[in-house]
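Tokens as discussed.
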């Protein structure tokens, strides 16, 4: 069996339509060239094998990192714990030593506020940005109003009525030839 790329075509009498010359069987390679070809083939197979193994190792490491929980990780340094003469009390002391070194995260202060809106007003949407909350409301008269409220300070910042009637005034535009104020 030959290793060249045309070996299957010779048995089926395949004729290349672009090359009208009859196929000539290739002469066997020189033993020195065949030896070099085998070395290169072996090097290529070993390189591909190593690459596949390394890719699998990286994939396994990524999967391990994604699936491992933070409780699985042990602290890098061991802490010296005191021993207690009472059996079974050492576990409580070691937990207290670990908890003493890592302070609990600060709990944000709870804020309770109320916004007075006219009776029958519906809130259509809301948006929160830093300490401000913007409410899009529908008034009982059918107008849309934007209410901007500072919930930390507890006061209204702005109330904007949106007028969509056909007789509503358009915003005033600056004339194009106006000179800038100095």
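Sequence:
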């Amino acid at each position: 069996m030959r290793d060249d790329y045309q070996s299957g075509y010779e048995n089926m009498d395949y004729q290349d339509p672009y090359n009208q010359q009859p196929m000539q069987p290739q002469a066997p390679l020189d033993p020195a060239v065949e030896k070099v070809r085998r070395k290169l083939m072996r090097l290529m197979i070993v390189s591909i094998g190593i690459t596949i193994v390394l890719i699998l190792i990286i994939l396994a490491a990524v999967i391990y990192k994604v699936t491992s929980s933070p409780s699985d990780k042990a602290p890098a340094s061991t802490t010296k714990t005191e021993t207690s003469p009472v059996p079974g009390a050492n576990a409580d002391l070691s937990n207290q030593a670990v908890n003493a070194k890592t302070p609990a995260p600060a709990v944000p202060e709870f804020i309770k506020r109320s916004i007075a809106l006219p009776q029958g007003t519906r809130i259509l949407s809301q948006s929160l940005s830093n300490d401000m909350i913007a409410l899009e409301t529908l008034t009982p008269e059918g107008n849309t109003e934007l209410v901007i409220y500072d919930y930390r300070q507890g006061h209204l910042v702005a109330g904007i009525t949106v007028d969509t009637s056909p007789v509503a005034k358009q915003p005033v535009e600056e004339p194009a030839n106006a000179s800038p104020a100095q």
